[in-house]
Design a protein that fits this description.
single chain, mainly beta, four-stranded antiparallel sheet
């Protein structure tokens, strides 16, 4: 079993930056995919970014391409999401996710305001 703890969320102004962290309770080296999802009020949870273990291949939602960067540090059992040029539509609860096996973190709130 893996426990995931997100941190780094908060309130930021339009155009600002935040870095989210997801710390796993055990080694993530063998976990192929680690990803960030988000869920805004009244909307479905959506994939934001994902990264593989083998070659660090990344995948991004079109809405965040060029602004967000996902990375992983297997030695620290941590995945990061660097978010730049934040927009109000980025406001959501951000969740860390692993697969396989599938585990979710508890989420961290990101609010972008003017």
């Amino acid at each position: 079993q893996v426990q995931l703890v997100e941190s780094g969320g908060g309130l930021v102004q339009i155009g600002g930056s935040l870095r989210l962290s997801c710390a796993a309770s055990r080694s993530i080296f063998s976990i192929n995919i680690m990803a960030w999802y988000r869920q805004a009020p009244g909307k479905q949870r959506e994939l934001v970014a994902a990264i593989t273990s083998r070659d660090s291949t990344t995948n991004y939602a079109d809405s965040v391409k060029g602004r967000f960067t996902i990375s992983r540090d297997n030695a620290k059992n941590t995945v990061y999401l660097q978010m730049n040029s934040l927009k109000p539509e980025d406001t959501a609860v951000y969740y860390c996710y692993t697969a396989p096996p599938a585990y979710w973190g508890q989420g961290t709130q990101v609010t972008v305001s003017s």
